[in-house]
Amino acid sequence: MSKKYFSGINYSLGNEDTTVEYEICRQLKPQVSVAIAGSGGRCLPLMAFSKKLFAIDLSKEQLAITELRARTYQSLDYYSFLKFWGYPPFGEYDYGHYRKIILNELPLSVQTRSYFHEVFGPLNYASILYLGKWERTFQLLSKGLRLLLRKDYGRILTFHNLADQKAYYQHEFPMTEWKAVLFLLGNKSVFNALLYKGDFVKKSLSESYFQFYYDAFDRLFTHQMARRSFFAHLCFYGKIGHEDGNPLEARLSTFDEMKPRMQNLDSDLVYINQDILGGLDTVTKELGQNSVDFLSISDVPSYFSGELEKNYLTKIRPAMRSGGLVSVRYYLNVLEPDLNGFEDVSDHYRELISQECVQMYRIKIYRAR
Questions:
Q1: Residue 366: per-residue pLDDT
Q2: Chain centroid to CA 106: how far?
Q3: 308-340 residues labelled b (16+ CB within 10 A) or e (exposed)
Q4: In terms of Cα–Cα distance, which of 108, 90, 334, 364 is closest to 207?
Q5: 60, 61, 65, 70 alpha-carbon torsion, rounded to 10°
Q6: Do residues 214 and 179 touch, judged by C-beta distance below 8 A?
Q7: Structural domains in the chain?
Q8: Cβ-contact 283, 54 below 8 angstroms
Q9: CA distance 26 to 261
Q10: In whole angstroms, how far apart are CA 102 and each of 67, 75, 271, 281, 322?
Q11: pLDDT value, residue 168
């Protein structure tokens, strides 16, 4: 039964660096934020600066793992939080008895607690940080990368300053083997076989899959420290190898900013099991139109088709207050939606976007007029 249930979890760690949205919320100080839930790691940090957060997801399992994350933020201190989830310096296979005790003590709904006992039980309460479909896919891909790069497979993550890292990447990095990895593994057929089961996003970009992934990693390796990218860790090691690679949600500064806001979860965090447009309708029914200050919708629009590709912002507009911001991450399929009622203000956040540690998304920020 646990295998059946767990097959519904796509993200257990997460596939996005939500620092962009986090810093936007720091500036905006939204009264009401709405976000795709994902694993919880992409939405819960927004609570540090938001009065109220609506977490929306079509997957009940993703909402369950978001609830679990929220309660561990609320109930645990920083190092206990890291230990429960298996973030470095703690190992994912250690502390099984501890996790079982904590799972029984957290103020979870009966349904969520029962569900996670189903998930953790067969694992002897090892961490579930890398057991989502997306994370397991990259664990498999990392084995292929290690096989092709051999002894140099992880050296790019060992540098402590950008100048040394760039020098290595430009002069010593095994580029021929790296290009072979991207050509063999970075394509539609592989991702459909391993993860998307035929539903891989369509590509509107003119460049090849190889060029897209090569350029994304090139930006990552030349503009920021690879050792601080949890995504780079997943690609090369299949897991986060050390504390420098922990994502935003697992950093002490983030935890300290979030902790005070996590004490009123029952009133300040609302879960909605719908698609994003249906979820926004639910929010406006509760709060009225023009009530959302910040909306983070991940890469959902990349999977839209037909008229929705052009008019999805028009459908969103009634929920947004004037001056409210919408964050969109386009993956391979970069849309050009009708901007009636919005303006593209992405350039205002260009430096912030350039430091995002995944670099697989074309991030756009739209402001409601």
A1: 98
A2: 24
A3: ebeebbbebbbbbbeebbbbbbbbbbebebeee
A4: 334
A5: 0
A6: yes
A7: 2-130+249-368 (3.40.50.150), 133-238 (no CATH)
A8: yes
A9: 13
A10: 14, 9, 22, 36, 43
A11: 97
pLDDT tens digits along 300-313: 999 999 999 999 99
Radius of gyration in angstroms for the set of CA atoms belonging to the chain, rounded to a whole number? 20
User: What confidence score (pLDDT) does residue 1 get?
Assistant: 30
SS3 category, 240: coil
Taking alpha carbons only, the member of 123, 303, 289 closest to residue 196 is: 303
Q: Distance between CA 179 and CA 187 in Å, rounded? A: 12
- Give DSSP secondary structure letters for 60-101: HHHHHHHHHHHHHHHHS-HHHHHHHHT-TTS-TTS-HHHHHH
Q: Which residues, given as ranges, of the chain have pLDDT below 70?
A: 1-7
Element (H, E) at 312: helix 308-316
Measured distance CA(61)–CA(6) in Å, rounded: 8
**Strand bridging mode 269-272 / 32-36:** unpaired
Is residue 246 within 8 A of residue 83, CB to CB? The reply is: no
> 251-259: long-range contacts at Cβ-Cβ below 8 A with a sequence spacing of 24 or more?
252/78, 254/22, 254/45, 254/48, 255/73, 255/78, 255/81, 256/78, 257/48, 257/49, 258/44, 258/45, 258/47, 258/48, 258/73, 259/73
pLDDT value for 329: 98
Q: What is the predicted pLDDT for the residue at 315?
A: 98
Beta carbons of 89 and 127 less than 8 angstroms apart? no
For the chain, helix (H) and strand (E) counts, in that order, are 17, 7
